[in-house]
Amino acid sequence: VFINLLTVYIYYIIGIGAFFRDLCTRTLTEDGVEKLNKNIAVLLCNMEMIFPPSFFDVMEHLTVHLPYEAELGGPVQFRWMYPFERFMGHLKGKAKNLAKVEGSIVQGSLTEETSNFSSYYFSPNVRTRRTATKRYDDGGVAPVYRHVVPSIFKEIGRLAGKLKEKSWDHKHLSAAHNYILRNLDEVHQFER
């Protein structure tokens, strides 16, 4: 029903997402690589019709080489450096003494490993990073109301931040009303 409301340009952007999804699959066939190799040039041409030339630099055009690289090296999850770079950033965050970075990283890593390992031997009521409750969890205690409150407002949790008053325009107010009417258990009995 809503498919006619979308512009044709959205399909080009979805195509780029599908390209990366297909490129990152665990099993990659030669036919799939050939198909990716043919499609990426067309996808980039379509993107050039949407975005201004200032959007495109070397990084956007490097996607043309990714299928060939996957053909030579195999599936990308064994070659991409994202997990290692993320872990190196985690380790660099442990460096407190910038004069001796390597020793500081080692000391921080050993401290983290030791605290994680020893947290398994604490009693369950001792709060650690491993046993911490969720951010908005009040311990599973449901609030008690003086008046009858619809089921959609009986979620367990607490407010985040300072109380702010906000007035909504008609668009957002009708969206909130529609959400409540579609998700309220008390209204389901009146649906056809």
From TrEMBL:
<dbReference type="InterPro" id="IPR025452">
    <property type="entry name" value="DUF4218"/>
</dbReference>
<feature type="domain" description="DUF4218">
    <location>
        <begin position="23"/>
        <end position="135"/>
    </location>
</feature>
<dbReference type="Pfam" id="PF13960">
    <property type="entry name" value="DUF4218"/>
</dbReference>
<protein>
    <recommendedName>
        <fullName>DUF4218 domain-containing protein</fullName>
    </recommendedName>
</protein>
